[in-house]
Amino acid sequence: MTHILSIDQGTTSSRAILFDEKMAIAHVAQQEFTQIYPQSGWVEHDVEEIWDSVVSVCNDVVAKSDDIAAIGITNQRETTIVWNRETGEPIHNAIVWQDRRTAAFCDELKDEGFEAEITQRTGLLADPYFSATKVRYILQTVEGAQEMADAGKLVFGTVDSFLIWRMTGGKRHVTDATNAARTMLYNIRDGVWDETICKRFNIPMSILPEVLDCAADFGTTDMFGPELPILGVAGDQQAATIGQACFEPGMLKSTYGTGCFALLNTGDELVKSKNRLLGTIAYQLDGKTTYALEGSIFIAGAVVQWLRDGLGIIEDAKDTHAMAEKADPSVELYLVPAFTGLGAPYWDAEARGAIFGLTRNAGPAEFARAALESVGFQTRDLLEAMHADWSGAAKGTLRVDGGMSASDWAMQFLADIIGAPVDRPKVLETTALGAAWLAGMRAGVYPTQDEFAATWALERPFAPEMAATEKDRRFAGWKDAIGRTKT
Ligand SMILES: Nc1ncnc2c1ncn2[C@@H]1O[C@H](COP(=O)(O)OP(=O)(O)O)[C@@H](O)[C@H]1O
Ligand SMILES: O=P(O)(O)OC[C@H](O)CO
């Protein structure tokens, strides 16, 4: 049986998933790797550990098939790797998307009025989240790096780009348009690396990868035996948008993993947000760019992990469901999980988490309920911004996926507080599916875009049940908590 190998290189683990001819999951392997926190607000990964974990999970699943038609890659976005063009050795740990070390430089960019240029060209904001200031940091702090970069001896890439470089034995230095769009160096209107921004950051353009469509020829690899083509690449949130078949303008998906990332398909219109959402590329196929409005929340499922690992009040993420159900309705806690600042639409890097409404009756059950609710409230913040930004956002249902979407309680509260239907699909591995479809479609194994969209299947719908007055009263409570948390 023919398979497609999908590699999902995420923030906390690497996964390899074999999809069969019918796009059903045949085999999965997963490996976690170390999170390195050198200082408060700094997050790094050991690039070799990422590489080893990818090789190991791929070897696991490849051994279970004798016919792999193509490889698709999806990855944690923005995470920045700079390596030596000759040796392929990274010159610094990967600096992860969550890392805030370049916040002061971003403030300088804002002070000098450069943020408007950035937004106009890249759709993004001057925030440490994106790759550009991380590249600049590496070139400035690793001894001799700037000179080597200027002499063409270094290369930069997001994780997809690094994996492809290694898999093709250094033959290809490429990325796809969705990953390029997250670097803050790529002009998403014109589809080119942006000279003005590269100049401002002193980043020589020779270190940047070639940018391809999401379904394209990214090179071949013989590391698993026969020569296999890499035919699909997309950043993980964009791959989930594809996997959720959000192909029509107005369609919206929200992925609840460590963080939450909501992407709204805006078609061929690059919407300029007035509410500090991001303009980004949803996907690029056959040379045609489809844009999205994105709301990025840094902490979603991670707040549940904090209940488990930080507070120790749950043993398993699943416990939150029963606890939320038995929580005292008269205790109204608001938990603002700004552990690493607030993302969209507030973008307050200095804010830190807070909890409001504590009384003597507040205990573990009320904390668990507040944690699940915080994800619903944050999503409503994003949706309100999207609706204010773009009239096309009016269309109905929110498609959800990611680990935390398994929580029925959280998904029901989400439907209640946003006052709109929430649909959970049968395939929750939408990220890996998106990358697999890109590669399989290009290989001629999987159906066309429309046929693929028709295969999307609902597992469970959540209809809003909360009375309008109650939902608005609760949301006003959240806004008050946010107001008191912001710096
Ligand atoms: N039943 C559940 N209820 C609430 N949260 C959950 C549940 N199952 C998983 N999660 C949360 O989902 C997250 C894992 O989702 P996943 O998509 O694997 O994340 P990532 O790809 O970012 O590592 C964890 O933060 C976990 O706390
Ligand atoms: O690896 P994830 O699922 O936490 O996703 C991370 C995002 O791509 C960051 O922008």
From TrEMBL:
Record text on activity regulation: Inhibited by fructose 1,6-bisphosphate (FBP).
Pathway assignment: Polyol metabolism; glycerol degradation via glycerol kinase pathway; sn-glycerol 3-phosphate from glycerol: step 1/1
Keyword Transferase part of the UniProt annotation: yes
BP-aspect Gene Ontology terms: glycerol catabolic process; glycerol-3-phosphate metabolic process
Domain Carbohydrate kinase FGGY N-terminal, first and last residues per copy: 4-243
Name of the top EC class for this enzyme: transferase
Domain Carbohydrate kinase FGGY C-terminal: 253-441
Residues binding ATP, per UniProt: T11, T12, S13, T258, G301, Q305, G403
GO molecular function, one term: ATP binding
NCBIfam families in the cross-refs: glycerol_kin, PRK00047.1
Family as reported in the entry's similarity comment: Belongs to the FGGY kinase family.
Record-given protein name: Glycerol kinase
Organism of origin: Octadecabacter temperatus
Lineage: Bacteria, Pseudomonadati, Pseudomonadota, Alphaproteobacteria, Rhodobacterales
